[in-house]
Amino acid sequence: MNCSGKWRGWLAVTGGVLVHLTLGTIYSYGNMAPYMTSYIRKYSTPATLSYQESSFVFALMLFGQGTSMVLGGYIESRLGPRITTLIGCLLVSAGMMLSALSIKVSFFLLLLTYGLIFGLGVGIAYVPPLVCAMKWLPEKKGLVNGLVVAGFGGGAFIFNQIQTGYLNPHNLSPNVTDPQDHTAKFYDQDSILDKVPTSFVLQGGIYLVIQIVGVLLLKDPPVNGVNNSLYNDESGLLDAQTVARSTTIDASEPNGPTEEGSEEDHTKPFPFGIPFPVDNGKDTKASGLDLPPKVMVRTTAFWLLWATFLVNGQGIMFISSLYKAYGQMFIQDDHFLALVGSFAAVFNAGGRLFWGWLADRFSYKLAMILLTGSNAIFLLTLVAAQYGGRAMFFVWICGIFFTFSGNFALFPTATARAFGSKYIGPNYGIVFTSVALSSALGAVLVSTLHEHLSWFGMFMLMGGFSIIGLVLTFFFRVKNQQGQHI
Q1: Which burial class, exposed, middle or buried, applies to 376 when counting CB atoms under 10 A from its CB (0-12, 13-18, 19+)?
Q2: Which residue ranges traverse the bilayer (predicted)?
Q3: 176 phi, psi to nearest 5 deg
Q4: Cα end-to-end distance, the chain, whole Å
Q5: Is the pLDDT score of 90 beyond 50?
Q6: What pLDDT shows up at residue 282?
């Protein structure tokens, strides 16, 4: 790639970072939840809304994101990254602004705007910037993924401060205790609650400005310089029968032999049609394959990735939505709790860079083993933060965000390396559907089990999910053409 091409690639990365900066405000929900829940209890319905029940907003965000990422990948393959990202961004900004009206009506309408519509927009706009950046810089997949999704992780750093600075500039503490749960505290001060609806408009307007700039920087590279063993130099396209033969294998051993003499018809078109041009696969850690979605979902490797993302998502769902509610039990300082959330966002962003670098330096498998192991330790010991005070709470929350953030750098990298970059959009969208199920499962677990298990029991449960992810990763055996783990 020439110098100008590299600079154009880094501009695409910058556009992706800006877009993901707004999409990543999904993680500012945990900071917003006390204000939002308190407003609904006083001015809207239901008046008995709990923090555990309000976590369904975040669950719907993740559900919308998980279900629409496949759609985003499909639209991207048809219309390109710019238009697809714009569609998703408009949904995000519209969902946020409409929440200024819906929260006045009922919590259930807020689920639609701040939950589902916002999440659908995040899902549609999430993949195209990643795909665009990886096409420009295929030899730096881990770093590129890490940089772009670092913007996603860093969004809450900025907007946590905007939310708290606007809504609670005088650092007032929650002054009402739930008679049904004495550990839950809510705001009753009109000086805070009266500004909750307009805070949605303020945030949505800022999103829109940032998104327009980011979208304008996204553009696919020209299709040239393709080099692949399955590439037909004469036609510039892949031979359908060659592709079919190359994909009739178990992706847990990407370079295994195909069965000779099979009479099965492998020449049927794959999703989005073939023949198709091949991406320039310069990643030496890749398996060397380009598997379409229909083939990918029949491999053991896909289901191991999907299941690992599913169990890892439980801790993400729980901590992201309830860390501030937990902190309010023993820390009466709203500005400090918002600051913890902001620094957690920095660690969220930095973690994506770190785990992406680690996967580039070593392998996805090693990085994921370290991630799930360290995340389990943080979750299993978080209950001690109420005795360790502010310092321990700060370190543990930042540590958890640092570890779980790696999921969003490692899974797209693993998907691209195991199944190829050509279909990375729809393929990663399918892998990400596990988050939709994980969010729904997580919300049900939190709302039904928290009363019986308390904070201690929930932390043990979430740590257990991380241990399951660790075990699943040991069975992931995809290797590159040199026989090394991807």
Answers
A1: buried
A2: 7-29, 49-71, 83-101, 107-131, 143-162, 200-218, 301-323, 335-355, 367-387, 393-416, 428-449, 455-476
A3: -130, 135
A4: 24
A5: yes
A6: 55
Instruction: Give the span between the Cα atoms of 104 and 100, in whole angstroms.
Output: 7
Q: Which residues pair with 294 in a beta bridge?
A: none
**Cα distance between residue 94 and residue 89, in whole Å:** 8
Task: Of 247, 227, 236, 248, give the one whose Cα is nearest residue 275.
Answer: 236
- Contact between 238 and 423 under an 8 Å Cβ cutoff? The reply is no
- The pLDDT confidence band at residue 271, using thresholds 50, 70 and 90, is very low
DSSP lists the bridge partners of residue 185 as 177
Contact 188, 53 (CB under 8 A): no
Counting residues of the chain whose pLDDT is more than 90, the rounded percentage is 60
Rounded to a whole number of angstroms, the CA Rg of the chain reads: 23
Find tokens 């990298």 and name the residue: 413
For 277-304, letters b (16+ CB in 10 Å) and e give ebbbbebebbbbbbbbbebbeebebbeb
* HSE-CB of 17 using CA atoms within 13 angstroms: 16
Nearest-angstrom CA–CA distance, 271 and 294 = 7
d(CA 475, CA 470): 9
> What is the distance between the alpha carbons of residues 369 and 255, in angstroms, rounded to a whole number?
24
Tokens in use for 117? 């519509």
Question: Which amino acid, residue 255?
Answer: N
CA distance 354 to 146: 8
Cα 318 to Cα 4, 14, 87, distances in angstroms: 44, 30, 29
**Mean pLDDT value across the chain:** 84
CA pseudo-torsion sign 332, 335, 338, 344: negative
The token pair at 284 is 């030496």
With 0-12 / 13-18 / 19 or more C-beta atoms within 10 angstroms meaning exposed / middle / buried, residue 222 is exposed
For residues 269 and 318, the answer to whether their CB atoms sit within 8 Å is no
DSSP run (H or E) holding 184: strand 181-186
pLDDT in the model for residue 181: 78
Q: In angstroms, rounded to a whole number, what is the distance separating the alpha carbons of residues 418 and 477?
A: 10
**Cα–Cα dist 151/269, whole Å:** 37
Q: Is the pLDDT of residue 239 over 50?
A: no
Checking if the pLDDT of 101 tops 50, the result is yes
Which tokens sit at 227? 């080099």
Q: Is the pTM of this model over 0.85?
A: no
Tokens 């710019």, residue? 82
pLDDT of the residue at 256: 38
What does the pLDDT average to over 118-143?
86
171, 333 in Cβ contact below 8 A? yes
Residue 174 phi, psi dihedral angles, 5° rounding: -55, 135
Mean pLDDT of 217-233: 57
CATH class given for the domain over 3-222+298-474: mainly alpha
